[in-house]
Amino acid sequence: METSDPKNLPTNSDLQSQIAPATPVPTPVDVGPGITIQNMVGTISVGCPLDLNQINSRVRYSEYNPGKFHGLIMKILNPRTTCLAFQSGKLLILGAKHEHDCKLASRKFAKILKQLGHPIKYQGFKIHNIVCTCDVRFPVKLDALHHVHSQFSSYEPELFPGLIYRMVKPRVVLLIFVNGRIVITGAKSRSELHEAFDNIYPVLKSFKKQ
Fold it and tell me: What's one Pfam family the UniProt record gives for this protein (predicted)?
């Protein structure tokens, strides 16, 4: 892999100029009645192989231990996000709570790699997964729900307190708890979050504890 002359590579202080001073952890994003985004996972390709050892030696907020995990971990503080970088050139962006922040973070991570001499080509950004929490604000009879919807759900309270519900459309997974709280994961857009919530709400209401 071709890289720039080491003498011309930016110093650690140059790279850290890409990292803004620490900011408070952003509050979750409310996208509708009872629905709050907790995390987004974005993916991009930089179009070239990455020298993870070199990146780890040059970037202050990074960690690379191939014996435990084959990806390199980088962090920035604004927006507060984490990047998992792989030798293939694929980047996973974790921790953003808004699409704009996720895309902005991906560009900042790509810029750091470019400053290290990697001939990157920013391409293929997309939101791969959105995780949200919501609350129907009433208790749910999980045993009865599982009995009627057994083809879509699994419930083993001795192992995990929530019921796992695999919705077909949209294709998301819901963790439903007896107090009415829900975690939705696997959505790729806000519209899928709303659709999943709108689909499950009347189902849960029919199993409301009196």
Answer: TBP
Q: By residue range, what is the domain housing residue 160?
A: 136-207
Q: 196: helix, coil or strand?
A: helix
Is this structure's pTM higher than 0.85? Answer: no
Q: Copy the structure tokens of residue 28.
A: 């979750």
- Give Cα separations from 163 to 105, 155, 179 (angstroms): 34, 5, 12
pLDDT tens-digit map of 27-74: 555 444 578 999 999 999 999 999 999 999 999 899 999 999 999 999
Buried b (16+ CB within 10 A) or exposed e, 82-93: bbbbeeebebbb
Q: Are 109 and 153 in the same domain?
A: no
Q: Is 34 helix (H, G, I), strand (E, B) or coil?
A: coil
The answer to whether residue 27 sits within a structural domain is no
Q: How far is the C-alpha of 28 from the C-alpha of 96, rounded, in Å?
A: 9
